[in-house]
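<goal> How does this chain fold?
<body> The protein record starts here
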Amino acid sequence: MISALLSGGLVGFSLGLIGGGGSILATPLLLYVIGVPQPHVAIGTGALAVSMNAFANFLGHARSGNVRWRCAFIFAGVGTLGALAGSTLGKLVDGERLLFLFGLVMILVGVVMLRPKPKFAAVERPMNLRTGLITAAVALGTGMASGFFGIGGGFLIVPGLVLATGMPMISAIGSSLLAVGSFGLATALNYAASGLVDWAVAFQFIAGGVIGGLLGMRLANRLSAGKNALTRIFAGVIFVVAAYVLYRSAGAFLGGAAGAA
């Protein structure tokens, strides 16, 4: 229970501190720190925990007026269908092979975090039919990736919303949390239907995440000038964890590939 609370607190803290990245650590923490025995159970349990924490943070952004409601509902609704399809496909893939692919995605996320942010402000486009269709298309692809790997997908959703609509970054972050929560819930329910969620661990993880999130948001307000440095440090942590995940799962992945050949 202590390891679940502390691991959930670390995930929530990172989300509150730098606005993302914590969900990508949930599965490795559940597997290698808490000791969840099966990769699929770790993915299902982590998806549920990330979902609940995302919904909690979404309420705060909504009260602050940082949500574009029409875009948020379109992205969450269409993307949830993609998450259901992606998570169904993910359950069919061998757990160790899925972990290996997950490690590769972690490296990609770390690289994206280190990319310099654009200096110019995009012009927000009106929410007409064209913008809605673009938003729906981006949401479907993002939702499928989120469901397949069992991640919240915030690092995909935020740039996806900016690309589709041109909305300000703070609005994309606030609006994305509805999609992160919806994607995670769809993935968790799909895994739960197959008995692949550890409910006790999930609730302990969520409790730790709520406390960690509050602490992270408070620290973020004090250290706002140093967020770029914090992001680089966190990206470094992701690279280290990704290397460990790849190391642990490479044997099964490569062995399976050699057997198939």
